[in-house]
Amino acid sequence: MRTKKFKAESKRLLEMMIHSIYTHKEIFLRELISNASDAIDKLYFKSLTDDKVGLNKEDFAIWIKADKESRTLKITDNGIGMTEEELENNLGTIANSGSFKFKNENKLEEDNQIIGQFGVGFYSAFMVAKKVTVISKAYGSDQAYQWESEGVDGYTITEAEKQSTGTEIILELLEDTDDENYTEFLDQYRIKSLVRKYSDYIRFPVKMECTHSRPKEQSEEDKEAKKPLEYEEYIEVETLNSMVPLWKKNKTELKEEDYKHFYTEKFFDYNEPLKYAHISNEMPAYNALLYIPSKAPFDFYSKEYEKGLQLYSNGVLIMDKCSDLLPDYFSFVKGLVDSEDLSLNISREMLQHDRQLKVIAKSIEKTISNELKKMLKNEREKYEEFWKAFGLQLKYGIYSDYGMNKEKLQDLLMFTSSNEHKLVTLDEYVSGMREEQKYIYYATGESAARIEQLPQTELVKDNGFEILYLTDNIDEFAIKSLRQYKDKEFKSVSADDLGLENAEKKEEIKAKEEENSGLLEALGKALEGKVSKVILSQRLKSHPVCLTSEGEISLEMEKVLNSMPTDQKVQAQRVLEINPEHEIFGKLQSLDKAGDSDKIGKYAKLLYDQALLIEGMSIEDPVEFSNLICELM
Ligand code: ADP
To answer: Which of 107, 319, 348, 414 sits CB 3.0–4.6 Å from 311 for a disulfide?
Structure first.
C-alpha cells in the first residue's frame, strides 16, 4: 500500500484550511453533519424514483458516537456513499466539491437542499483530529473502501468491510494542549449543544446514544430505613436536532408561546420579548423571525454591544451575528434570517459583501420600520415601553450619517410634551398646533421638572403653545438634523426670534434699549469674555434674567459637547437677557444715573451667575458670588 500525496496546491490549501479559514474549531462538526445530510439527500432524491433504494424517508439518519477511551468521534450516515474513485476525487483533491457537480449534473433547482459546494468543509476535521478515517460504501456497489489520512502528508485508500450503504467518518482527536481542549468534543453535552447551535435544522435526525442516570428502585425495607438512593446509568437514543425550523413552520400552527419560548431559549433573555414578527418574504426569498426585546441589554449603549441577526442558509447556521443585516438605528432587534439565495463563500463565514445579503438587509429594514409604525398606531402602550428602552438609539439614528436616515425615522420619534408630560409624536404635535402657531417649540434641560422652571418657557406657554421637552443629550442634535417636520420649523424657546413678539412691544423694547444704551454697555463691559451681549428681554415676564444664545450652538449643546472626552471645547455665544419690567432693572437704572459703575459691575456679575444657575450650569467663582451677595445684602 502506497501513501498518495495530496496534489501540491491541495497540500498548501489544506495547511491554510487547518490554520486560518475557520475562526472556530468547533464548526468541524457542522461541516461533517452537513456533508452527511447532503449524502442522505442525494440517496433520498434517488429513492423517489428508484425502488431499489429500499429506504423510506424516516429510515434516514445521521449518527454520532463518542468514545472517550479511544478518543474517537464517529459520524455515520446512510446516505449515498462514495466509490473508490469518488473517495479519491472528493477527498484527495481539496476544493473539489462532489456536491457542486451533483447539483449541476442533476440540474437541481427545485427542492434543492444540498448544502456543500466548495469542497473544503471535510478538511476542517483536521482542525481537531490527528487522524481521519472514512469508510464508505457507495449506493449500488458491493465493495466498501477506506480512506485514511493524518493530514498534509497524504492519504491511503484500501478495501474495507462495511455492511450497509453510506459513510462512516472516524476522527481520532488531537491531544489537549495548554490553549486547546479537544477532549470536550467527546462530551455528550458539548456535542448536543453544538448540534443544536449549528445543525438544529438539518432535515434528517442527528441521533446519539446518550447516557443518563436514574435512581434505582428501592425495596420497602430500604425505603423505611431511609437509605440513600442508589443511581444507575442507562442509555437512551436521542434525536439532537429539532429538524424543522420554527420559522419554516406554518404560521397558523404556531402559538404566541412558541415564538416567545424560542426567543428566551435562543437569545438568552429572561424577559419575554416585547414584540415579534414572523416573516416569509418572496423577493428576495427569505424567512425571518424578528424580536424586539422588552428591555435594553445591560451593555446596549456601550461599545461592547454587538448588533446582528443570525444568518442561516437552508437551515444551517452561517453566522451568529451578521451585523450587515441591521442598520445601527435598529441594532436592538434580535432574531434570524434564513435564505436559500445566498452565495456562500468558502468558509461559510465571511459573506459581508454579498449583493444578495444587501438586498435582504434592505428588506429587513423596511419590515422593522413597518412593524414599529404598526405598533405605534395600534399598541400605544407597548410602543411607549419600546420607546423608553430604545428611543435613544433612534434619535442617534436621526443625527448620525449627516441626517441621511431622518426621513425614515422621524415618524417614530417621541418627546415629552408640556401638556400633561405625555409622550407625543411629531405628527401629534403638529396636528395639535394652533392656527396662529408658526413653529414647533422645544426646550432643553436635564429633566422635565427642571425645564418647567426655565424663565424662557414663560412666553410660549402664555401663548398657550405646546412645548417639547428635550431631556436626552442627543435630543437637540437630532432636532437640529431634522430642521423641520411637515414644513414646520423647530424653534428653541431660547431662540431670539420666537415669532411671538408683537411689533408694538418690539418697538417699545427697542426704544428702551436706546434710552439705556449706556447702562447696557456698562453691563456688557463688566461681563466681557462671558457674554457676547446684554439685551432687554421680550420674553421674560416674572423672572429678572435669563441666558440665551445666538448662532448654531445652544447652551445645552455646549454642555453636551464639552462633556465629551476631547480636548476641543466649544462655547455658545451667550446673551444675557434682562427683564425691563422687573424691579431690579429700575435699581440698575438708578445706579446708572448716580454713575456708580463699580456697583453696576457687581450687579452684572450677580445677575449673570443667577442666570447660569437657572440654566443648570455651574458658576465660575462661587466664592466671589457668595461674597457679593453678602456685600449687597
Ligand atoms: P463540500 O461539502 O463543500 O462539497 P467537502 O470537502 O466537505 O466539500 O466534501 C467534498 C465532497 O466529498 C463532497 O462534495 C461530497 O461529494 C463528498 N463527501 C463528503 N462527505 C461525504 C459523505 N458523508 N457521504 C458522501 N459523500 C461525501
So the answer is: 319
The verdict on 610 and 545 lying in the same domain is yes
Best CA proximity match to 265, nearest among 178, 182, 197, 354: 197
Residue 120 CA to ligand 1 centre (angstroms)? 8
Is residue 310 assigned to a domain?
Answer: yes
In tens, the pLDDT along 319-369 reads 889 999 999 999 999 999 998 877 665 445 545 557 788 899 999 999 999
Name the strands in the sheet holding 533-536, side by side, starting at the edge strand that comes first in the sequence.
533-536, 573-578, 545-550
Task: State whether 67 and 162 are in the same domain.
Answer: yes
Residue where a domain terminates, one of 492, 515, 545: 492
Q: Which domain holds residue 381?
A: 246-386
Residue whose CA lies nearest to ligand 1 atom number 20: 35
CA 26 to chain centre: 24
Q: Judging by beta carbons within 10 Å of its beta carbon (0-12, 13-18, 19+), is residue 111 exposed, middle or buried?
A: exposed
Q: What is the pTM of this model?
A: 0.72
Q: Which residues contact 377 (CB under 8 A, 6 or more apart)?
A: none
What is the CATH number for 94?
A: 3.30.565.10
304 & 423 share domain? no
**Residue 19 pLDDT > 80, yes or no?**
no
Task: Lay out the sheet containing 206-215: strands in order across.
Answer: 155-160, 144-149, 129-137, 166-173, 72-77, 62-67, 206-215, 231-239
pLDDT tens by residue, 438-487: 999 999 998 999 999 888 898 898 889 999 999 999 999 999 999 999 99
**CATH number of 426's domain:** 3.40.50.11260
Same domain, 380 and 424: no
Same domain, 568 and 517: yes
Pick the atom of ligand 1 nearest to 42's CA.
25
Q: Whose CA is nearest to atom 19 of ligand 1?
A: 35
CATH of the domain at 297: 3.30.230.80
Dihedral, CA of residue 131, residue 137, residue 139 and residue 140, to nearest 10:
150
Q: Which of 195, 207, 162 is nearest to 65 (CA)?
A: 207
177 & 259 share domain: no
The answer to the question of residue 393 being in a domain is: no
Q: How many domains does the chain have?
A: 4
User: Which residues lie with the beta carbon below 6 Å from any ligand 1 atom?
Assistant: 31, 35-36, 39, 77, 79-82, 90-91, 97-99, 116-123, 167
- Residues linked to residue 322 through DSSP beta bridges, in sequence order: 309
